[in-house]
Amino acid sequence: MQVFKFGGASVKNAHGVRNVAGIIQQQNSSQLLVVISAMGETTNALEQLTWAYLRRQADTDTFWQRIRANHEQVIQELADGDTSAFSQVYDLFAEVESLLQREPDPYTRPDQVYDQLVSYGELLSTRIVNAYLNQMGLDSYWVDARRLIRTDDSFREGKVDWKQTCEYITDSLAELLNSSVVITQGFIGSTREGYTTTLGRDGSDYTAAIFAYCLEASNVTIWKDVPGVLNADPKWFDETVKIDQLTYQDAIELAYYGATVIHPKTIKPLQNKHIPLYVRSFLQPQDYGTVIGNFEQRLPISSFIFKMNQTLISFHPKDFSFIAEENLSKIFGQFAEYGVKINLMQNTAISFSVAVDNRPDRLARLLAGLQEEFRISYNEGLELITIRHYDDRTIERVLVNKKLLVEQKSRYTVQLVVKDLGTHGL
């Protein structure tokens, strides 16, 4: 039994949907579960729609009509004149429009509204792909992931109840997979009370791992627009090298530090059941790509990870205390409460510094809760560079035209917080 995951870039238009359908068609017609993300930039567009709706902006409907028009264009190109097979997509359009016509409930948390609206990206894309597969004569079955993946009520970052989720998945899908390809959504789940949740941005990889773990899949394949796992992002490096084989440990480290090719939570469930993960190109589906598994050989080359738009924050106690357990406990408690992830941390006797993604809404609330006890300083617009299996030459390479603010080394990894002093290429 296999699990495939297709991201938004693979289904961004009608040509992409046809290509995905072709890849699915080449597989065994059963024992295949396919997880699909929202089309193209739909999640970003739905985020804009959500904030416009919550603020009651006059252009809320304009945001929605653009999203609807993009999906309708894909349907028109796929339907070949007869859109009846896509009727359930239009039902979803009606659901969104009904929601937008209602006043926002002042007692409902914004993050809960976010999950309810943004989840429609995956619901729409999977309905379209499933309808097209059936139109082609392939026996595929659409399944609502919200009925199978159970989470707590941490909206926008739902934590999975593994025991209940696996029970739902195996009870619902074990027999169905013997006769049909199953199409389902990435990124979404629901609470015990039935409220829609999301698993965090780019969480569709994680969804694929959840299904694979529960169904004890033979393998998982993530289909990307790159030939496999590269040692650096092509956006930042002119010359990159494809890594044919990665250990689970190296993959976890790369994902944890921000490698965008794999979601950080994806690897561990697969490692626990020794399920290999393939990263392959939907543009060149005949190519092998990269396999992540239980190998002995460590990463053969240096890998580079860039996180942009970072903020470096330093905390200094206002009283005569040092940065010790009590102060750290207060700081970490606030970071956890406001959902701010620390990408790097470093402390001295009298200061504690962290690098975080620049999310002004969350950071403002976080810093307000700590400013009574700490003097706080920060720098914005920085970069965090992580090199896995580094040497002096690789460090020198990434510091060209950079001002180094923080350096942190371990045996295999170095992290550098830098300020860009000018445009350049590597």
Question: What would you note in describing this structure?
Answer:
By secondary structure, the protein is of the alpha/beta class. It folds into two domains: 2-217, Acetylglutamate kinase-like (Carbamate kinase, 3-Layer(aba) Sandwich), CATH 3.40.1160.10; 303-420, VC0802-like (2-Layer Sandwich). 36% of the residues lie in helices and 24% in strands. It has helices spanning 14-25, 42-54, 60-79, 87-101, 110-118, 120-135, 162-173, 204-215, 248-256, 267-272, 325-337, 360-368, 392-398, and strands spanning 2-6, 32-36, 140-142, 181-185, 188-190, 196-198, 219-224, 229-230, 242-243, 245-247, 277-281, 290-293, 303-317, 342-347, 352-357, 374-388, 402-409, 413-420. The strands form four sheets. It has an eight-stranded mixed beta sheet, sandwiched between helices. Helix 2 (42-54) runs antiparallel to helix 3, helix 3 packs parallel to helix 6 and helix 7 (162-173) crosses helix 8. The protein is globular, with a radius of gyration of 23 Å. The protein starts with a strand and ends in a 6-residue tail after the last strand.
